[in-house]
Design goal:
Layout (H helix, E strand, L loop, with lengths): L3 H18 L1 H8 L1 H13 L7 H19 L7 H9 L4 H31 L5 H25 L3 H17 L12 H7 L3 H12 L6 H27 L1
Helix pairs in contact: 1-6, 3-4, 3-6, 4-6, 4-7, 4-8, 4-10, 6-7, 6-11, 7-8, 7-10, 7-11, 10-11
C-alpha cells in the first residue's frame, strides 16, 4: 500500500473528506468554541476581572475539545481498519493521519475560543501565546481521545469514557485545591495532568513579569504527553 508517508497522506485526505462530508457532526464540534466563549464572557464579562478560575476553564476547555473530537474516531472504523491491515496498512500511518486532521480542528476551536474571549475580556499576556498553550492542550486531549478510542470496543463506551478521563484533570489541580493543603501524591498526580500544565502556562503569561521558561516547559510537557499517548495508541492498534 505504499510507504508510511504515502499512506499517511492518503489516509489524511480520506479522513478530511469524511469530516467535511459529515457537516452536522463537524458543525457540532466547531460550535463548542463560540458557545464556551459566550459562557465565559457572561460569567467574567461584568467584572472585567481575569481570575485564576478563568485560566483553568480555558485550559480544561482545550483538553475537552481534543478529547471529544477524537474519542470515536478509531473505534467506529475498527472493522475497516482490520480489513485494510490485512493488505498492508501501517498502524502508525493510520494514527498519524488522524492526529493531523484532529489538530486542524483543535487549531480552529482554540483560535476561535481565545479570539472571542479576548474581544471582551482583553486577557493579559498576549492572545497569541495563550493560543499556543491552548492548542498544545487540545493536541494532548486529542491524543488522549485516540488512545481511549483504540482501547474501547464501542463508540458509546468511548463517549462515556471521556468524562472519566477528564475528571482527574479537574480534581488534581491547584485551581481546585491549594498546594499547601495537598499531599505529595496529589502533587505528583497533578504533574501528570494536561490541565495543570496548560493552567500554569496561561497563569504565568498573565503575570507582571512572565517566566518564558515556565511557558516553554508547559508546552514541552504537553507535547511529550501527546507523543506518549500517540505511541500508546499505535501500540494498541498493532495488537
Amino acid at each position: 500500500m505504499g510507504s508510511r508517508s504515502d499512506q499517511t497522506g492518503i489516509l489524511a485526505e480520506r479522513y478530511l473528506e469524511i469530516v467535511w462530508g459529515d457537516l452536522g457532526n463537524t458543525f457540532l464540534l466547531l460550535i463548542q468554541a463560540p458557545v464556551i466563549a459566550l459562557c465565559i464572557v457572561l460569567v467574567w464579562g461584568d467584572t472585567q476581572t481575569v481570575t485564576d478560575s478563568l485560566w483553568f476553564v480555558l485550559a480544561l476547555s482545550a483538553v475537552w475539545f481534543g478529547a471529544i473530537n477524537s474519542c470515536r474516531e478509531i473505534v467506529k472504523e475498527r472493522d475497516m481498519f482490520r480489513r485494510e491491515r490485512r493488505v498492508g496498512l501501517d498502524p502508525t500511518a493510520y494514527v498519524l493521519s488522524k492526529i493531523m486532521i484532529l489538530a486542524m480542528l483543535g487549531f480552529i476551536q482554540c483560535l476561535c475560543l481565545i479570539y472571542l474571549v479576548n474581544l471582551k475580556l482583553k486577557l493579559p499576556g498576549g492572545e497569541l501565546l495563550h493560543f499556543v498553550v491552548l492548542f498544545m492542550a487540545s493536541l494532548a486531549g486529542s491524543s488522549l481521545g485516540l488512545a481511549l478510542s483504540a482501547f474501547v470496543s464501542t463508540s458509546d463506551r468511548a463517549v462515556a469514557g471521556v468524562p472519566l478521563l477528564l475528571l482527574p484533570q479537574v480534581l488534581f489541580s491547584e485551581a481546585v485545591m491549594s498546594h499547601e493543603h495537598s499531599r505529595w501524591t496529589v502533587k505528583l498526580l497533578e504533574n501528570l495532568t494536561m490541565t495543570s500544565w496548560a493552567y500554569d502556562g496561561l497563569k504565568n503569561l498573565a503575570a507582571t513579569e512572565p517566566n518564558m521558561g515556565t511557558f516553554f516547559q508547559g508546552c514541552l510537557a504537553l507535547a511529550v504527553m501527546s507523543a506518549l499517548l500517540l505511541g500508546l495508541t499505535i501500540f494498541l492498534m498493532r495488537r
